[in-house]
Write a structure and sequence with these properties.
The protein is α/β, with parallel strands linked by helices. The chain is 31% helix and 18% strand. Helix 2 packs across helix 4.
Length: 311
């Protein structure tokens, strides 16, 4: 990574998610409300997180899956898409080329932390790892007190260009304007910092066919969407197990857990888009990043030029 220009010892600075005015330092621990004198908006501590969500009418179709997953209704809650949290963390390190030692001195922001397991692993190494999500954190994630923020990526309550590492996985393709969502997240990356964006859908993703088979399925009752996920997941799991050349029961069970969650994830959001590599790399370039693709729907970019970034 390039030399980072932020002062890591200083607290991160906040801005009002309502009017954009600077609010001062992010509290080291839950305390009194953070009040904006310009528009009278307050960010309050709500037992599990800071409530910085200005628009609570914004659709949160994608958030329900994690509550169901935590309750064991979308496969094994000990694995995420068939992978343990520890394995997911190792995969993240491999894709980004980072080491746990490097994480210790970084400022990290995960936008859309969802189940919270990756953020929890990051917090084991990094004392300045924060998370933003349009859903309150799961109790089972056991995130560091005061580190989670309930808010929208379109109005992130941090001043721009402060984080050495920004993570956003499986999020922006479920927004009405993916490029705008990308821009809002990318502006949080400091000069020389890294942006890991992953989990984008690409053309040809098989489970997306269900949205054509069942038009408007995101509006179906929850029990119906769960039924679709439970019905189709064994077929997808069997197919993948056969393709692997190792048709074992353990592999089938793990794959079935993966697809229950994956199918529910695909059919629930109102907005779902697919993106080609050239398009995504173009987004990075416009925001002043040198980027490359590291896997299916996964990209890593280093901010080399802030002059082309959003003001």
């Amino acid at each position: 990574m390039h030399q980072l220009l932020v002062d890591r010892a200083a607290p991160v600075r906040m801005r009002c998610p309502s009017c954009g005015s600077e609010l001062g330092d992010f509290p080291a621990s839950p305390a009194d409300p953070i009040h904006c004198v310009h528009c009278e908006y307050s960010i309050n501590w709500d037992q599990d997180c800071w409530d910085a969500c200005v628009d609570k009418t914004y659709r949160r179709d994608f958030a329900r899956q994690w509550i169901l997953w935590e309750a064991g209704r979308l496969g094994d809650p000990n694995v995420i898409y068939g992978v343990s949290p520890e394995d997911r963390f190792r995969e993240f390190l491999n894709l980004t080329g980072l080491s746990p030692e490097q994480l210790k001195s970084m400022r990290i922001l995960e936008v859309g932390f969802g189940h919270g397991r990756l953020l929890k692993e990051l917090q084991k190494w990094c004392p300045m790892a924060y998370g933003l999500d349009l859903s309150r954190p799961l109790r089972s994630a056991r995130l560091r007190p005061g580190s989670a923020i309930f808010g929208n990526l379109l109005s992130i309550p941090f001043m721009p260009h402060q984080f050495d590492l920004v993570i956003c996985r499986g999020v922006i393709h479920m927004t009405p304007d993916p490029q705008k969502g990308f821009d809002c997240v990318a502006e949080q990356v400091a000069p020389g910092g890294m942006f890991y964006m992953g989990g984008l859908y690409e053309p040809g993703k098989g489970n997306l066919a269900l949205r054509k088979i069942f038009p408007g399925i995101w509006n179906y009752p929850e029990f119906a969407r769960l039924a679709v996920a439970h019905f189709f997941s064994p077929f997808r799991a069997a197919l993948e197990t056969i393709r692997s050349g190792k048709p074992r029961w353990k592999a089938f069970k793990r794959s079935c857990a993966h697809y229950k969650l994956d199918i529910f994830d695909v059919i629930c959001p109102r907005w779902t888009s697919v993106h080609m590599e050239d398009e995504v790399l173009g987004w990075f370039a416009e925001e002043g990043f040198e980027a490359h693709k590291v896997g299916y729907g996964d990209y890593v970019g280093i901010r080399t030029d802030c002059s082309s970034a959003r003001p």
